Each structure stands twice: as structure tokens, then as C-alpha cells.
Amino acid sequence: MFKWIEAFEEERVFKVKLCLIYLGVRHRMLNKRIISLISFLLLVMVAGTTLAACGSGSTATPVSTSKSVGNNATLDGQAIMQERCSVCHSITRVTSAHHTAAQWQNTVNRMINHGAKLAPQEEQVLIDYLAQNYK
Predict the structure, then answer these.
(1) Alpha carbon of 83 to those of 13, 34, 64, 65, 102: distances in Å?
(2) What are the backbone dihedrals phi and psi of residue 55, each rounded to the nearest 5 degrees, phi first?
């Protein structure tokens, strides 16, 4: 295993040297310190890019989506859809889909597993709204 790591390290150092020579830096000026610094910076850039690409991005907390009707507060499926579904993707992605109630149930459950924030009563209101309006 260590031979593989050593070979990988030697190949990486060689590639860095080639890049620097290509950019006009003379070979005799290269030393382990410069190569180590450049390798570290490349590693940080790759790690940062990877973390940015894999980040969840969704830290939304449930917001009140109720309409007042007299003394009763009823949940609004359209408002829930616009507030929660648009956190991760466009509303047209939702509105262009046409599913049965069971298919919408599966879709909403899948989105909750991916991090969508819905209270249980909001979940049912959203499923009913989607099943009624996007069959």
C-alpha cells in the first residue's frame, strides 16, 4: 500500500514540476517547499469544490402557510408548494408533473427524505392539493 502512495506522490510531484516548467519556472528553482505549498493549495481547492457541490443547501424551517377564514385557520396547499418546493427547484417542475394521489404521496415522501421541511398536517394538505390540481 505504501508503495502505491509513494508512486502516486512521485507522479503528482512530477506533474506539478511539468506544469511549473511549462509556465516558465526553471527546474533548479523548484524545491520541496514550493511543491508542497502548491500541492496543498490544489488539495484545498479540490476539497472546497467537492464540498460546495455536495452541500445540502437546504436549511429552511417550516413557515406558517395558513389562511385565516373567520376564526378557523386552514392550510393552503398552493402556498405550501410555492414556499417549500421552490427551495430546491422551480415551481414549473412541480406543476408540469401529473400524478395520481399515490404517486404524489411517494414524491412528497421522497422529497422529505431529501430534506424538505414539512409538518405532518402540511404534508397531507400538499398531497391533496397536488393530487387535485395536477392529475
Answers:
(1) 50, 50, 10, 8, 22
(2) -65, 150
The CA–CA distances, whole Å, from 36 to 32, 39, 79 equal: 6, 5, 54
**Among residues 92, 97, 90, 88, which one has the least CA distance to residue 116?**
88
Domain span holding position 6: 2-54
Amino acid 92: pLDDT: 86
Helix/strand/coil for 105: helix
| Cell triple for 32 | 520541496
Residue 60 domain flag:
no
Domain co-membership, 71 together with 44: no
- In the chain the beta strands, taken as DSSP E runs, fall at 66-69, 72-75
* 80 vs 123: CA distance, rounded Å: 9
Q: Give the separation between CA 105 and CA 126, rounded to whole angstroms.
A: 9
Q: Are residues 127 and 70 in the same domain?
A: yes
Higher pLDDT among residues 44 and 67, named by residue: 44
pLDDT tens digits, 19-47: 766 666 555 555 677 778 888 888 888 88
